Amino acid sequence: MAVRACGLIIYRRLQPGPRSKVADSIEYLLLQTSYGTHHWTPPKGHVDPGEDDLQTAFRETQEEAGLQASQLTLVEGYRKELHYPVHGKPKTVVYWLAEVKDCNTEIKLSEEHQAFQWLKLEDACKLAEYEDMQAMLKEVHQFLCAKE
Fold first, then answer.
1. 144 falls in which pLDDT band (50, 70, 90)?
2. Does the global pTM surpass 0.85?
3. What is the 3-state secondary structure (H, E, C) of 11-70?
């Protein structure tokens, strides 16, 4: 049986300048783990008994980044599953997309993470080492830009 985890891809929109494109004003939140290889990832975690996937995503975001569900707007129409092995066992991670209502909202890390950054797409892809994570971030970015 695959390990199941859920999370939110969190983004914010900065005030675009007069000549800048919408795409240039979007930044993604990545957290750096304080364990293992110190990889960068959106907030995510394992599903607890009795939780549905989306509840897990919101709970993990609150625990890992200090963001309450009330501070976020879930974006309709985006849900992505990533599948990869961890320690030889299959893992499924389900992500949704959410925008921070106030782009100046404070991020409060748990002990599981040692740093966070708000990053434009190109920089987020550089920090997200895994190809499927990079592909998902690019897909999200296209999805958001198409909605404009």
1. very high
2. yes
3. EEECCCCCCCCHHHHEEEEEEEECCCCCCEECCEEECCCCCCHHHHHHHHHHHHHCCCHH
